[in-house]
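An instance noted here:
***
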Amino acid sequence: MTTNPYLPADIAHLNPNEITQGYWDACSRRELAIQRCTACGHFQHPPRQICGTCRGQGLELTPTSGRGSVFTFIVVPHPVHPALQPHLPYNVALVELEDAPGVRIVSNVVDTPPDEIEIGMPVEVVWEEPHPGTVLPRFRRRQASG
Protein backbone atom coordinates (compact mmCIF):
# COMPACT_ATOMS: atom_id res chain seq x y z
CA MET A 1 0.00 0.00 0.00
CA THR A 2 1.19 3.50 -0.79
CA THR A 3 -0.11 6.41 1.22
CA ASN A 4 -0.41 10.07 0.28
CA PRO A 5 2.52 12.21 1.43
CA TYR A 6 2.33 12.84 5.16
CA LEU A 7 4.66 15.82 4.97
CA PRO A 8 5.48 18.06 1.98
CA ALA A 9 6.98 16.08 -0.90
CA ASP A 10 9.55 18.76 -1.63
CA ILE A 11 11.31 18.22 1.72
CA ALA A 12 11.79 14.47 1.14
CA HIS A 13 15.25 13.98 -0.33
CA LEU A 14 17.46 10.91 0.00
CA ASN A 15 21.22 11.00 -0.04
CA PRO A 16 22.20 7.33 0.05
CA ASN A 17 25.80 6.20 0.19
CA GLU A 18 27.44 2.80 -0.30
CA ILE A 19 26.33 1.74 3.20
CA THR A 20 22.69 2.87 3.04
CA GLN A 21 21.97 2.28 -0.67
CA GLY A 22 20.76 -1.31 -0.12
CA TYR A 23 18.27 -0.17 2.53
CA TRP A 24 16.80 2.46 0.20
CA ASP A 25 16.77 -0.01 -2.72
CA ALA A 26 14.70 -2.39 -0.55
CA CYS A 27 12.34 0.47 0.34
CA SER A 28 11.87 1.19 -3.37
CA ARG A 29 10.64 -2.43 -3.67
CA ARG A 30 8.30 -1.79 -0.69
CA GLU A 31 10.37 -4.08 1.53
CA LEU A 32 11.52 -3.06 4.99
CA ALA A 33 14.93 -4.76 5.22
CA ILE A 34 17.11 -4.26 8.28
CA GLN A 35 20.84 -4.83 8.51
CA ARG A 36 21.82 -7.97 10.43
CA CYS A 37 25.24 -9.33 11.40
CA THR A 38 25.97 -12.76 9.95
CA ALA A 39 28.35 -13.55 12.84
CA CYS A 40 26.28 -12.72 15.94
CA GLY A 41 22.76 -12.09 14.56
CA HIS A 42 22.56 -8.51 15.86
CA PHE A 43 20.08 -6.26 14.02
CA GLN A 44 20.99 -2.59 13.61
CA HIS A 45 19.55 0.51 12.03
CA PRO A 46 20.57 2.71 10.38
CA PRO A 47 22.99 0.57 8.37
CA ARG A 48 26.66 0.80 9.33
CA GLN A 49 29.98 -0.59 8.08
CA ILE A 50 30.49 -2.95 11.02
CA CYS A 51 28.35 -4.69 13.62
CA GLY A 52 27.73 -2.53 16.67
CA THR A 53 27.86 -5.60 18.91
CA CYS A 54 30.70 -7.88 17.76
CA ARG A 55 32.45 -5.50 15.32
CA GLY A 56 32.00 -8.10 12.56
CA GLN A 57 31.98 -7.00 8.95
CA GLY A 58 29.61 -9.67 7.61
CA LEU A 59 26.39 -7.70 7.32
CA GLU A 60 23.27 -8.47 5.29
CA LEU A 61 19.89 -6.88 4.81
CA THR A 62 17.12 -9.06 6.24
CA PRO A 63 13.50 -8.53 5.21
CA THR A 64 11.10 -7.86 8.08
CA SER A 65 7.33 -7.99 8.39
CA GLY A 66 7.13 -4.23 8.92
CA ARG A 67 5.09 -4.76 12.09
CA GLY A 68 5.98 -3.08 15.33
CA SER A 69 4.75 -0.74 18.02
CA VAL A 70 5.12 2.90 18.90
CA PHE A 71 8.03 3.11 21.34
CA THR A 72 7.62 6.85 21.82
CA PHE A 73 6.38 9.83 19.83
CA ILE A 74 5.95 13.57 19.85
CA VAL A 75 3.28 15.76 18.31
CA VAL A 76 4.92 18.81 16.78
CA PRO A 77 2.74 21.94 17.24
CA HIS A 78 5.08 24.51 15.63
CA PRO A 79 6.72 24.35 12.20
CA VAL A 80 10.48 23.88 12.12
CA HIS A 81 10.33 24.91 8.46
CA PRO A 82 7.78 27.17 6.71
CA ALA A 83 6.73 24.33 4.37
CA LEU A 84 5.46 22.38 7.39
CA GLN A 85 2.96 25.05 8.51
CA PRO A 86 -0.02 23.55 6.61
CA HIS A 87 0.72 20.10 8.09
CA LEU A 88 0.48 21.06 11.75
CA PRO A 89 0.23 19.32 14.06
CA TYR A 90 2.26 16.36 12.82
CA ASN A 91 3.85 13.48 14.69
CA VAL A 92 7.32 12.03 14.77
CA ALA A 93 7.36 8.48 16.09
CA LEU A 94 10.00 5.98 17.12
CA VAL A 95 8.73 2.58 16.01
CA GLU A 96 10.17 -0.59 17.52
CA LEU A 97 10.09 -3.49 15.07
CA GLU A 98 8.75 -6.88 16.19
CA ASP A 99 11.08 -9.11 14.22
CA ALA A 100 14.29 -7.07 14.40
CA PRO A 101 15.09 -6.99 18.13
CA GLY A 102 16.43 -3.67 19.35
CA VAL A 103 15.69 -1.80 16.12
CA ARG A 104 13.73 1.43 16.32
CA ILE A 105 12.96 3.53 13.25
CA VAL A 106 12.19 7.24 13.26
CA SER A 107 9.12 7.81 11.11
CA ASN A 108 5.54 9.04 11.31
CA VAL A 109 2.23 7.41 12.14
CA VAL A 110 -0.14 8.22 9.29
CA ASP A 111 -3.92 7.99 9.04
CA THR A 112 -4.26 8.41 12.82
CA PRO A 113 -5.22 11.64 14.58
CA PRO A 114 -2.44 12.83 16.91
CA ASP A 115 -4.62 12.44 20.01
CA GLU A 116 -5.16 8.74 19.20
CA ILE A 117 -1.48 7.78 19.00
CA GLU A 118 -0.30 5.91 22.09
CA ILE A 119 2.94 4.37 23.29
CA GLY A 120 2.70 0.65 22.64
CA MET A 121 0.17 1.06 19.82
CA PRO A 122 0.61 -1.74 17.26
CA VAL A 123 1.58 -0.40 13.83
CA GLU A 124 2.51 -1.70 10.38
CA VAL A 125 4.56 -0.24 7.59
CA VAL A 126 2.94 1.59 4.68
CA TRP A 127 4.85 3.11 1.82
CA GLU A 128 4.92 6.71 0.72
CA GLU A 129 6.37 7.88 -2.59
CA PRO A 130 6.42 11.67 -2.33
CA HIS A 131 8.09 11.87 -5.73
CA PRO A 132 9.44 9.30 -8.21
CA GLY A 133 12.45 7.42 -6.87
CA THR A 134 11.88 8.32 -3.22
CA VAL A 135 10.00 5.66 -1.24
CA LEU A 136 9.70 6.18 2.50
CA PRO A 137 8.50 3.82 5.21
CA ARG A 138 5.68 5.29 7.27
CA PHE A 139 3.52 3.45 9.77
CA ARG A 140 -0.20 3.19 10.40
CA ARG A 141 -2.25 1.70 13.19
CA ARG A 142 -2.18 -2.04 12.63
CA GLN A 143 -5.30 -3.36 10.99
CA ALA A 144 -7.20 -6.01 12.91
CA SER A 145 -6.69 -9.41 11.33
CA GLY A 146 -9.93 -11.18 10.75
